[in-house]
């Protein structure tokens, strides 16, 4: 049986060319992918692979590693070989590491136009090496390292400056018949970032990597990223995302995946529809919602579960949910698709919801 009502979709995706980052398609009609960046020393192969494994388990599809030194460049081959997900090498200053990353089997290389004027005379060589290996290049423009020439022209990192920087760098590669490119134009201000990506989306068909750079600690960064990505993705702009948080990278993946789920761009996993509580609540909704979330975490079937603080609005408010509870008088009314199926004491709510969730899974033929 179809448990979940169909989710309305956001605007059609902007038509972008598709590139392959290792096994992950980016752009075109490929699902929007989520990526993060390791915080370990890349030269510490074991620690980096351990963090990549954790990221992959939490739903990261592409991982980027910094490559600021020769020791890091030397570690790339072992990391790229053993990583369960495609590895992108992040190169800021040294063209020689671009070649090292391509030779090491990295799935892509990120370069920063603001930092790589030295690359100008090497672009042809890079383009040939990347093309030969089937390795795409991300042109990663960052407000904090905008090319001095553009900074002078525009006065600061305006959307126009970010876009001009990116397209200028693309043109250098295009001169060498290289178009296996994706672009990012990151800024720490979501308003500037949104405008930059809108302008860029209108001016080229390269796939776009969305990011708000230096978004801040977890709370602020989550909101900035959700606002910016939501505005762009809801208009069909964006092919892969990276949430930047001053927090462990696994948190970035959780936020990124949640943003895609919230926009209906990815199948929703467990979704708790809990009420905010009010003066009518007859249960501690916050604690109950947390217990239900913990009890159903990792459940193999996507579920929308309503946790309502009272029976006045409970079943009615949660009709769209797969199952739920409305509490009152020390009891919980358990309902499936808005119909009350049983009433249990408060301390049995979580286990009863799990039982009902298992029945739903069984009905769907999933064990
Ligand atoms: Fe208030 Fe009940 Fe609505 Fe929760 S479900 S917000 S307790 S009226």
From TrEMBL:
InterPro entries: Dihydropteroate_synth-like_sf, IspG_bac, IspG_bac-typ, IspG_C, IspG_TIM, NO2/SO3_Rdtase_4Fe4S_sf. Pfam families: GcpE, GcpE_C. The keyword 4Fe-4S applies. [4Fe-4S] cluster binds at residues 275, 278, 310, 317. Residues 1-14 are annotated as: Disordered. It comes from the Bacteria. Pathway: Isoprenoid biosynthesis; isopentenyl diphosphate biosynthesis via DXP pathway; isopentenyl diphosphate from 1-deoxy-D-xylulose 5-phosphate: step 5/6. Residues 16-256 form the IspG TIM-barrel domain. It catalyses: (2E)-4-hydroxy-3-methylbut-2-enyl diphosphate + oxidized [flavodoxin] + H2O + 2 H(+) = 2-C-methyl-D-erythritol 2,4-cyclic diphosphate + reduced [flavodoxin]. Converts 2C-methyl-D-erythritol 2,4-cyclodiphosphate (ME-2,4cPP) into 1-hydroxy-2-methyl-2-(E)-butenyl 4-diphosphate. NCBIfam families: ispG_gcpE (TIGR00612), PRK00366.1 (NF001540). PANTHER family: 4-HYDROXY-3-METHYLBUT-2-EN-1-YL DIPHOSPHATE SYNTHASE, 4-HYDROXY-3-METHYLBUT-2-EN-1-YL DIPHOSPHATE SYNTHASE (FERREDOXIN), CHLOROPLASTIC. This is 4-hydroxy-3-methylbut-2-en-1-yl diphosphate synthase (flavodoxin). The gene is ispG.
């Amino acid at each position: 049986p179809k448990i979940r009502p169909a989710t309305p979709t956001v605007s059609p995706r902007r038509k972008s060319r598709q590139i392959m980052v290792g096994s992950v398609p980016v752009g075109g009609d490929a699902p929007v992918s989520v990526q993060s960046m390791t915080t370990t020393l890349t030269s510490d192969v074991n620690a980096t692979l351990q963090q990549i494994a954790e990221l992959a388990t939490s739903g990261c599809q592409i991982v980027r590693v910094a490559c600021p030194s020769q020791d890091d460049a030397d570690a790339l081959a072992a990391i790229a070989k053993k990583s369960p997900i495609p590895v992108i090498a992040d190169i800021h200053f040294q063209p020689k590491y671009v070649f090292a990353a391509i030779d090491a089997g990295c799935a892509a290389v990120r370069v920063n136009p603001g930092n790589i004027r030295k690359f100008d005379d090497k672009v042809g060589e890079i383009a040939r090496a990347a093309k030969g290996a089937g390795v795409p290049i991300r042109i990663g423009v960052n407000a904090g390292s905008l090319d001095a020439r553009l900074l002078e022209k525009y006065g600061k990192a305006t959307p126009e400056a970010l876009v001009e920087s990116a397209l200028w760098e693309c043109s250098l590669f295009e001169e060498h018949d290289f178009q296996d490119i994706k672009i990012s134009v990151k800024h720490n201000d979501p308003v500037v970032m949104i405008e930059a990506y809108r302008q860029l989306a209108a001016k080229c068909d390269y796939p776009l990597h969305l990011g708000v750079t230096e978004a801040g600690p977890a709370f602020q960064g989550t909101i900035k990223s959700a606002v910016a990505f939501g505005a762009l993705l809801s208009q069909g702009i964006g092919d892969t995302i990276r949430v930047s948080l001053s927090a462990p990278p696994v948190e970035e993946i959780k936020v990124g995946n949640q943003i895609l789920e919230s926009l209906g761009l990815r199948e929703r996993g467990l979704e708790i529809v809990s009420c905010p509580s009010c003066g009518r609540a007859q249960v501690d909704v916050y604690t109950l919602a947390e217990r239900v979330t913990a009890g159903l975490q990792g459940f193999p079937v996507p579920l929308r579960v309503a946790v309502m603080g009272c029976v006045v609005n409970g079943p009615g408010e949660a009709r769209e949910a797969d199952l739920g509870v409305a509490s009152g008088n020390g009891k919980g009314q358990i309902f499936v698709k808005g119909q009350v199926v049983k009433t249990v004491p408060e301390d049995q709510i979580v286990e009863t919801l799990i039982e009902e969730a298992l029945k739903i899974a069984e009905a769907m033929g999933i064990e």
